Amino acid sequence: MSKLRGEALYKAALVRLKSGETEVVDTSAPDFRFSTTTVAIEAGKKKGFIRTKRYPELCREIIAEEDARKSKLADSPKKAKNTADARVKKLNEQYASLKRDHEVCLEQMLNLIRSNYELQRENQHLKALNNNVTEISSRRQ
After folding, report:
1. What pLDDT does residue 70 have?
2. How far is CA 83 from CA 26, 66, 87, 93, 96, in A?
3. pLDDT value at position 48?
4. What is the Cα–Cα distance from 60 to 11, expressed in whole angstroms?
5. 40-51, pLDDT tens digit by residue?
6. pTM of the full predicted structure?
7. What pLDDT does residue 102 have?
8. What is the per-residue burial (b if ≥16 Cβ within 10 Å, else e) of 87-109?
9. Contact residues for 7 (Cβ-Cβ < 8 A; gap 6+)
10. Integer Cα distance of 11 and 46 in angstroms
11. Secondary structure in 3-state letters for 12-68
């Protein structure tokens, strides 16, 4: 562990958090925030070790760094998060679209079956007429 003690230990942890070269805390996590708790955890202590009465300057630096992080996030365009709700919504839309397409295909299939049936009936009728015509013509000869 580090030989730093007291405020120097916490300031070193804050510097590591600022630079993103942390040892304990994951600064790339979407729920990362600069707080006295994250600084204390990065310093190898438990939450609640950094108090405003004990380290007022350090607490002001932490708050300033969190404000800077928030303003940086507000300035940069936000990426669309692929949350579970968004994924479920997208899948529901896909399902509804596929269901509509399925119903259209079923309707087309039924129309084709009906047309096929009607054509077969017409074909049988025409064959019957053709047979009748050939029988009549063969009788006449």
Report:
1. 84
2. 20, 24, 6, 16, 20
3. 80
4. 12
5. 888 888 888 888
6. 0.51
7. 97
8. eeeeeeeeeeeeeeeeeeeeeee
9. 55, 58
10. 15
11. HHHHHHHHCCCCCCCCCCCCCCCCHHHHHHHCCCCCCCCCCCCCHHHHHHHHHHHHH
In order, the DSSP letters of 79-106 are PPP--HHHHHHHHHHHHHHHHHHHHHHH
Instruction: Kindly list the distances between the CA atom of residue 21 and the CA atoms of 9, 15, 17, 36, 50, in Å, as whole numbers in the listed order.
Output: 15, 9, 6, 18, 21
Phi, psi of 26 (to 5 degrees): -90, 105
Q: What is the pLDDT of residues 42-89, one digit of tens each?
A: 888 888 888 888 888 989 998 998 888 888 877 665 554 556 778 888
